Fold this sequence. Notes:
- By secondary structure, the protein is mainly α.
- It is built from twelve helices and four strands; from the N terminus they run βαββαβαααααααααα.
- Helices cover about 55% and strands about 5% of the residues.
- A hairpin with a 5-residue loop joins strand 2 and strand 3 (about 45-50).
Amino acid sequence: MRISISEIKVNPGRRNAAPADVRELADSIAEIGLLNPVTVSQSRTLIAGLHRLEAARLLGWTEIECVVSGLEGLRAELAEIDENFVRSDLTPLEFGELLLRRKEIYEALHPESVQTNQGGPFRGNQHQEVSDTMTQTTKSFAQDTAEKLGVGRRTVERQVQIAKNLTSETKDILRGADMPVTRKQALALSRLAPGPQAEAAALLAAGEIQSVEEYAPPARAGPVPQPGPALTPDALAAEASQFAQVLQRTAQRCRPESFAQLSPPQLSTLWRQMGSARETVEKFEKLLEMNTK
């Protein structure tokens, strides 16, 4: 049926259509017509066919051929997510968040993993329309999604885990980056604790480090160690001497060019370590002063 384009609503959280793709599609529609209608819900909310809708709008159409689907609520959102997967410009973060949301919806719709005889490879909604059979499967979420996207099951599970483990702060940092981080770096970030994760993400986004492996997080605060028995005079003299010798050897081998090559995280870590060493030396000096008066 034909529906007025002005009546069709597009969810605000949906990704924008790519202008170049819309222009190309508009040229094709102008030449051979609209081969596949767009899909809308009974409330006239777009489910599939954003690029076709925008191409029709670009051509000056006031109406477009539509399929009104019975998919409502969660099923409509699931179908919309499935269409977004065919976009080639999804960042690893966007891809992971779509998978995470799809998992939530899928498991809400199929908590018992109902067996059906439907399914098949996912080809994208520019070529094949969404139907109720698209969301029915005998398989787990990971297996079903992997087959629809043509990727490995482990890839799906890993991407979902990345989206779950990245904090909101880290995601905001990555969204604001000039260049999206790679899937490998997103995975490495997701394995860090929340504080270091955000710090490493900020350094990546700013281009100050090229990989998470370059990030040296501050040492994790563990339980406060209990002091051992007091050192004997000979043991105290020996340990203090070793400590001083280590500092002396390090200072003798330091060169300006070595410091110039340190990354920002390494410099930050070195500042913290030297601060700790300075406090230790000051404690030694105070104890020495107390016993030399």
